[in-house]
Amino acid sequence: MTIQWFPGHMTRARREIEAKLKLIDIAIELLDARVPLSSRNPMVDDILKGKPRLILLNKTDLADTRTTEKWMAYFAGLGYTSLAIDASTGTRVNEIPVKVKQLLHEKIERQLAKGITPRAVRGLIVGIPNVGKSTLINRLAGRAIAATGDRPGVTKGQQWIKVGTEMELLDTPGILWPKFEDQLVGMKLAMTGAIREQVLNIEDVAFFAVKELSKRYWDTMSERFNLTTEPPKDLDDADEVVRVMEDIGRKRGCLVSGGRVDLEKASGIILRELRAGNLGRITLESPEDMM
Ligand code: G4P
């Protein structure tokens, strides 16, 4: 679901998370492994302040494995523990309670030293829309709990979900907003499907996708669509990128009268196949981009 984030929504989302933070021991920040930076809330460090945090890179089934490893090393360098998961199939999801316990180990030890039997540790999943929060909550709960398509301000009675014997999770996630002041971020989120087409022009998103794929994954794209055209020599030359889009359209039979390529139809195909993972594992951001 697409949320139009106005300043009022952001304030409300922040307040809701801050109220939930009072109830929990650890925040579990969920990111999309294909776009770990663009799927990150710009104020997350400020919002989660002093709370212990576990970072989860989700949708790793769609992401480039080597780049996911680089991201984990990057987060380790910042002092965060991270875990690469796939909430849709459950890959490595069972390691979450283990990591959480490790992160809260000192607190647990202190309680034991005082003779207190520690209660189950309590966690909250936070992230921008569409990173997989509801899918993960359902996976951890072992049943359907969270309604997908969340928005701030739509609250329901909160409950604790038991995850094994030593961890509990709030059944409603903390919803954060993406950084849309940066147009590239919006495009990357649209490419991955986090922002729906209704908000952005489908041809613009596909144009951006072909440009990014030409830069990072030319061989993969060329093979998938059987391209006969050469890679763009200058990625800033729009005509060069459109030439590739047209080749894709031709190869997929997206033609209109006069043999012209139906770019809108071709755009739909490019985005659908990209999001479904048909082009293989693709990550659009790497820690090296920040250097
Ligand atoms: P949210 O609560 O953070 O908004 O996200 P949600 O769980 O609704 O997940 C958004 C979409 O991402 C869903 O697909 C969901 O199936 C998919 N998803 C979540 N985790 C993973 C993952 O690890 N790998 C892959 N490949 N997909 C994942 P959808 O198409 O919007 O809905 P549906 O077709 O699954 O019903």
Automatic annotation (TrEMBL):
A GO MF label: RNA binding
Alphabetical list of InterPro entries matching this protein: G_CP_dom, GTP-bd, GTP-bd_ortho_bundle_sf, GTP-bd_ribosome_bgen, GTPase_MTG1, P-loop_NTPase
List of residues binding GTP: 58-61, 130-135, 174
CDD domains linked to this entry: YlqF (cd01856)
GO BP: ribosome biogenesis; translation
Assigned GO CC terms: cytoplasm
Transmembrane segments: none
Ranges where the CP-type G domain occurs: 13-178
Subcellular localization(s) per the UniProt record: Cytoplasm
Coiled-coil region list: none
Similarity comment: Belongs to the TRAFAC class YlqF/YawG GTPase family. MTG1 subfamily.
Role description: Required for a late step of 50S ribosomal subunit assembly. Has GTPase activity.
Name the record gives this protein: Ribosome biogenesis GTPase A
Source species of the chain: Paenibacillus taihuensis
Lineage: Bacteria, Bacillati, Bacillota, Bacilli, Bacillales
